[in-house]
């Protein structure tokens, strides 16, 4: 079994300032494609262009919107485009939390944390452009659930745990605390 690299998923996270620390907490849970209810889903731009990125396939859906694959029209760089529906932000508090989330994410630059590249303010959406986790192998929760009895080797477990600690430690050193660190929020590569 190959050793997984991982990025801590910063998706559907809100960042709240308390004293001298910033705390992340989640909004609605993120859903893997195929498990969502499309009855009220709005098309968030498949086939369109946002900020020079061609919007393509659905990667996932969350409480305020969805994440799609984006390909830059000039460079062919692939990114993850997180569309946050403005009409799903029901209060000024939601808008303030989203603004604070963006401020927190721009403060983070670590190999174990997915990087926010840019932000676009579109008429119906706020679009967060994240680096794309190449070779995405799912989240840690689903990875562990699919393992045979006996689970992960001690070496692999130590490697993954050390990468999680490195990312969390870095965020803490930036005075940012993730309040909803769970297996589903850790992406494997």
From TrEMBL:
InterPro entries: Kinase-like_dom_sf, Prot_kinase_dom, Protein_kinase_ATP_BS, Ser/Thr_kinase_AS. Residues 53-189 form the Protein kinase domain. Keywords: ATP-binding, Kinase, Nucleotide-binding, Serine/threonine-protein kinase, Transferase. One of its GO terms (molecular function) is ATP binding. Gene3D superfamilies: Transferase(Phosphotransferase) domain 1 (1.10.510.10). GO terms for cellular component: cytoplasm. It comes from the Eukaryota. ATP binds at residue 86. GO terms for biological process: intracellular signal transduction. Pfam families: Pkinase. SUPFAM superfamilies: Protein kinase-like (PK-like). PANTHER family: MAP/MICROTUBULE AFFINITY-REGULATING KINASE, MATERNAL EMBRYONIC LEUCINE ZIPPER KINASE. Belongs to the protein kinase superfamily. This is Protein kinase domain-containing protein. It comes from Aphanomyces astaci.
């Amino acid at each position: 079994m190959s050793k997984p690299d991982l990025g801590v998923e910063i998706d559907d996270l809100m960042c709240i300032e308390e004293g001298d620390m910033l705390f992340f907490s989640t909004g609605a849970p993120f859903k893997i494609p195929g498990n969502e209810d499309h009855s009220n889903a709005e098309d968030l731009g498949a086939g369109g262009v946002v900020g020079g990125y061609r919007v393509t396939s659905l990667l996932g859906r969350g409480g305020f919107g969805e994440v799609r694959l984006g390909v830059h029209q000039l460079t062919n760089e692939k990114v993850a485009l997180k569309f946050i529906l403005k009409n799903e932000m029901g209060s000024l508090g939601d808008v303030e939390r989203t603004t604070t989330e963006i401020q927190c994410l721009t403060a983070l630059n670590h190999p174990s944390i997915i990087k926010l590249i840019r932000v676009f303010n579109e008429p119906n959406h706020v679009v967060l452009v994240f680096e794309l986790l190449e070779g995405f192998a799912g989240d840690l929760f689903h990875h562990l659930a699919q393992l045979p009895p006996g689970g992960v080797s001690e070496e692999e477990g130590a490697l993954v745990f050390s990468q999680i600690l490195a990312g969390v430690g870095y965020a803490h050193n930036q005075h940012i605390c993730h309040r909803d660190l769970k297996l589903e929020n850790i992406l494997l590569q």
